[in-house]
Amino acid sequence: MELNLSAVLDSWRFLLSGLGVTLLLAAGVTVLSMVAGTLLALGRLYGPRWLSAIIIFYIDSMRAIPVLVVLVWVYFALPIATGLNLPPFWSALLSLSAHLAAYVAEVVRAGIQSVRPGQVRAGMALGMSRSQILRKIVMPQAVVRMLPAFGSLLSLAVKDTAIATVIAVPELMRRADAVAGQTYAPVEVFTTVMILYFLVIFPLTRGIDMIYRRISFLGRS
Amino acid sequence: MTFDWAIIWQSMGALWQGALVTIALTVLTMLLSVPLGIVVALLRESSLKPVSALATAYVELMRNVPIILVVYWAFYVLPILTGIGFSPFLTGVVALVLNNTAYNSETFRSGIRSIRKGQTEAGLALGMSEGQAFRKIVLPQAWRRVLPILATTWVTLFKDTSLVSVIAVGDLAHTALQIRSQSFRVIEMLTAMAAIYWLLGYPQAKIVDWIHRKYGVTE
Predict the structure, then answer these.
(1) Looking at beta carbons, which residues of chain A come within 8 Å of B196?
(2) At B8, is the secondary structure helix, strand, or coil?
């Protein structure tokens, strides 16, 4: 088998700007799903019963449906249903975040519930309000404990962006497909891109693991 | 806007076929990647440095790249590497097995490590061979700790099978997307697809929660 690396070398700019779109989308998905997921978890734990029932249904449904299905629904069906026409990038951002938020919500809930109830009672006994207890006692410990799980969700966010190729978001996967098709060198292109993804995601997860190891003592109680 | 839900009933047969392919992909991949995962986990614990390094490299690579890329990669690379033309279904299985084996090996490795070393040593002291001690002492206990994680992996795998639709495996996602582009009943078809995935996936997610409650080991 002869390798034709010129296919990759000739289009490195094109691929690299695709990586830029991938990272931008991943960053957007991370921020949006963190915010939405935290709100979902808080609504589930502290909201009225009807609200938490709706949230539980939402979370479990998102855990049951492939992200691809959510993506194509938002991109193809949502515009017809609502008249709201989102460009591919925004459709991907919305659907990937909606999906990942369910996982974030589960992680946040587990983190909050891992703090012993005695600590909450102690806070109440000291005359703190519910939100004070959450902000000053529960969250500082819970956030540290959530860190490893957030690490894997972060890598999931980057990996999920590749699925956006299906709706033609010009991210790395899409561009690799285009270059592979034009140069007839799919093996070289896809292998290179695989290494590129690895070089982005591996340090991310390892970095968070390292941070966690250094500050895990803050989460002990 | 008018809906024409009749398209769903007309394509019920095709969708059912697609759902069966999705289930077959999930079952076949899991059946292959559980034993392979155990093998890779053992290779990683091997005392031969090159063997464990290679196994580690494989696991880390697969855990840190998108599955959809592995699917494309397998689609183009497999025929060149082996000289055999794989069917899309088999290519999909290979890609999913490559990915899932890596995750399963991590699951088994942590399961095996959670059994104290003293137990294996006790087995050896009783005259068991390494293999016997592993099969009769470690595996039966590790299995129970591994089960909840395997269940979670199962549901993830079930959803990830939708990604092989990009290489035209006739799974549920591919079938539904095909019918959508032929009939132009976009909302109806995509909603039906989501509903079928939900009907199949929701009970699985609930069973996984139950397994976690029943078998989950809390420290």
Answers:
(1) none
(2) helix
The predicted complex's ipTM stands at 0.90
Give the gap in angstroms from C-alpha B124 to the nearest C-alpha of chain A. 35
Cβ atoms within 10 Å of A83's Cβ, excluding its own: 8
A1 within a domain of the structure (yes/no): no
Nearest CA in chain A to B70: A194
User: Which of B201, B98, B95, B218 lies closest to B148 in space, CA to CA?
Assistant: B218
**A171-197 pLDDT, tens digit each:** 999 999 999 888 888 888 999 999 999
**Chain B residues touching A186 at Cβ < 8 A:** 72, 76-77
- Binary contact (A177, B72; C-beta < 8 A): yes
Q: Are A155 and A207 in contact (CB under 8 A)?
A: no
User: Has residue A21 been placed in a domain?
Assistant: yes
pTM comes to: 0.90
Q: Least CB-CB distance to A64: which of B73, B186, B205?
A: B205
Q: Which residues of A touch B80 (CB under 8 A)?
A: 1, 187
d(CA B207, CA A82): 35
Coil vs helix vs strand at A65 = coil
User: Residue A83 is part of a domain; what is its CATH number?
Assistant: 1.10.3720.10
Structural domains of chain B, count: 1
pLDDT, one tens digit per residue, over A41-94 is 999 999 999 999 999 999 999 999 999 999 999 999 999 888 888 999 999 999
State the DSSP code for B47: S
